[in-house]
Structure formats: C-alpha cells, structure tokens
Specification:
- The protein has 377 residues and is of the alpha+beta class.
- The chain has three domains: 124 residues, Sandwich (Immunoglobulin-like), CATH 2.60.40; 172 residues, Rossmann fold (3-Layer(aba) Sandwich), CATH 3.40.50; 35 residues, no CATH class.
- The strands form five sheets. Strands 11-21-20-19-14-15-17 form a seven-stranded mixed β-sheet, sandwiched between helices. Strands 2-10-9-4-7-6 form a six-stranded mixed β-sheet.
- Helix 3 runs antiparallel to helix 4.
- The longest helix has 24 residues.
- The chain starts with a helix and ends in a 10-residue tail after the last strand.
Length: 377
C-alpha cells in the first residue's frame, strides 16, 4: 500500500510541476541589460551587464539565453559565440536560478567599429524541474551604445582644388581665426612667439602677449552630404564614407575645443528610434556629445537629396553662420545646390578628386587620406 501511495505521489508531483512550469516558468522573471557607458570611441572598453532575477517560488534548474550582438563589439575574454553574418553573432549564456535569486553576468567588450548598436530581442529556453519538457520564449530587452567616429588631426590633409603645386596641403586651418584681441598680458612660458605684442612690449619694457577672446558671431554648420544610393556597397565605398564621417567628427571637435558654436546636419539615414538629421550650432560638452552620437548613427544610404536638406537649413541660418560640406565625392549638381546659400561662406571638402569648377564664393578642398598621394589635376 505504501509503495502504491508513493507512486501516486510521484505521479502527482510530476504532473503538477509540469503544469506549473508550463504556465508560469517565465512569469516574474525580470531581465535587464546595460552598458556602463552610452558612448565610446573605437578601441575603448565597455562593460556589458546582463541581470536576471527570478521573483517566484519555482526554481529554474536550467536557463539558456541567446542574444544577438554586433561584431563591432568584441568580447575581451573568450566566450560562447556563434557567427551569423559579417555584422552579427549569437551569444549564449547558461545559468540556473533558485527561487527569488538574482544573477548578474558582466562581460568586458571592446569597441572596434563606429556605429549605433541597439540590442533588442533575446530568446530564453528552459525546462521544468525534471527536464521532461522544454519551453522557449522571445522577449524584448533593450540596450544601446554609440561608438563614435575616430578623431583625426586634419592639419596637412586638405589639398586646395585645382592647385598647380601638385601634392600641396594647406598649412593653416580652413576656418579663419575666430579670435579677436581684447588686450595684452604678461608672457607665459607656454605662449607662442606669434602672440607677442612687440609694440606693447617696447612701450612697457616687459614681454607682453595679445589677450584673445572669441567672436560671438561665428557659427559653423557641418553638413555631411551622402549621395551614394546603391543597395549593395563595395568595400571602397564604405571606406570613403567612413572617412567622410571621421572628417566631420574631427572638424566638430576642433570647433568645440576652440569654443565656436558648431552644428551638424546630414541627408543620410540615421539609426535609432528617432532620426536626428539636424543639430543647430551650439557649444558645450553636451552638444558635442550629441554631434558624435549623431555621427555614430549615420548609415551608408541617403534619405533625401542635398537640395532638400539645404532648403531646410537655409531658413534657419543666423548671421555669421559658415557652412562646411563634407562629401565622399563632388559633382556639378551639388555645386548648383550650394549656390542657393547665396552670401553664406561655404567650404566643400571632397574625399574624391574631380575637375568640377566651383564659383568664387565656394572654397573646394580635397581630403588626403593617410598613405595617399595626389598629383595636380
């Protein structure tokens, strides 16, 4: 009799636990994932955290979590991953959870490629207590991180168009000095000899240098023009677009360090829940971060023509705004579109050489990438 009762109790237990797990195995199971930094540069390391909390009395003896991550973020320590394509790989985590237990897994990742990486869905697989039946569910658990473009030193990389001097780069920056002299002060050990005010020095018998302040009127709008629209891009196409994005980021950084209000706009598709194609000129660290994040989100395909973007921008330009257009290639259509800017000082930086003629109010430069050599054309 006792053996029969034991068998009945075992059967009841097996059926009951199967029913309970089938109905509520994924209930009150809370998952979150996050990065310890929302924006980094290529080469930087970031901590990725996956937290799972079981807030019910049913234990999870085995839980497998499959999540899609991006190849632009590499694990520093070898872990269980499976490539899906050139951009995405599958990462698997296996663990067990007692009732009301929380488990946190942390991984150190290395950012290797510019981009805006959004983590969305993950697949969870588990079994009942005896492992007789498997259950699976897909759940949306969001996290995102922006990998900014590399910043480059642009000095000596810009070639004036139609120069007769061959491989000749400009030694000064393409934007005129924004500073005005407001007075003089005593010479310091780190001051440049160019800043010495010799007239004031002779008059006061003391080495004095010019004291500068920034003009409040100068504002720079950087425009990334993307006219490429092929559905399948070649490796060299991607390389030149990435270089154009890095040029935009580098110019914005230089303006930020100088204190000049700088803005950013593009006619390219941008990633993320909200497409931010226009940021009005402003200053400050927060604004610079917003520009870098926008550049991280830029895709390789255009959203609309440059003419439409310029029409949108020109109405909002205030007095003193100068425009810098960075484009993978220059064409007559773009030059015609830029003429609509009327009296606005415009500089175009093209990453491809061409023989396009530009009107006197537009300055055209070609960007010389590292290792490249240009001859006069």
């Amino acid at each position: 009799m006792s053996s029969l009762l034991f068998i009945i109790l075992i059967a009841v237990f097996v059926v009951t636990q199967a029913m309970l797990y089938k109905k509520g195995i994924f209930e009150r199971l809370y998952i979150s994932r996050s990065f310890d930094n929302t924006g980094v540069f290529p080469g930087d390391k970031v901590v990725y955290e996956l937290a799972i909390e079981n807030k019910k009395f049913l234990p999870l003896t085995w839980l497998s979590i499959d999540e899609k991550l991006y190849t632009g973020l590499e694990f520093e320590i070898h872990t269980k991953i499976q490539p899906i394509n050139d951009d995405i790989y599958l990462h698997n985590s296996m663990l067990s959870l007692l009732p009301y237990q929380k488990v946190v897994r942390r991984h150190q990742l290395k950012a290797v490629k510019r981009g805006f990486y959004q983590l969305k869905n993950m697949t969870m697989t588990s079994t009942n207590m005896l492992g007789t039946e498997e259950y699976s569910i897909e759940k949306e658990v969001s996290a995102s991180i922006a990998v900014y473009p590399n910043l480059r030193d642009l000095r000596g990389t810009l070639i004036p168009a139609n120069t007769t001097q061959g491989d000749f780069s400009v030694k000064r920056w393409i934007i005129e000095d924004p500073m005005v002299i407001t007075g003089v002060r005593a010479y310091g050990g780190n001051d440049s000899l160019k800043s010495i005010n010799w007239k004031a020095t002779a008059k006061n018998q003391q080495l004095l240098v010019n004291k500068y302040d920034y003009t409040a009127d100068k504002r720079i709008m950087i425009i990334l023009n993307l006219e490429r629209q092929e559905y399948s891009l070649k490796r060299e196409d991607i390389h030149i677009i990435e270089a154009a994005i890095e040029v935009c980021a580098s110019i914005a950084s230089m303006m930020h360090e100088t204190g000049i209000p700088v803005g950013f706009a593009t006619n390219a598709h941008t990633l993320g829940p909200v497409e931010t194609n226009v940021l009005d000129p402003d200053a400050g660290d927060k604004h610079m971060t917003a520009i870098l994040e926008s550049l991280a989100k830029v895709s390789y395909f255009k959203k609309y023509k440059s003419r439409e973007l310029l029409k949108l921008l020109v109405a909002s330009f205030s007095w003193g705004t100068e425009v810098i257009v960075v484009t993978p290639e220059i064409c007559e259509e773009l030059i015609e579109d830029l003429q609509s800017l009327n009296n606005i000082k415009t500089t175009v930086i093209s990453l491809s050489r061409s023989n396009v003629d530009v009107p006197p109010n537009i300055s055209l430069y070609h960007y010389r990438q590292e290792g490249e050599h240009y001859e006069a054309i």
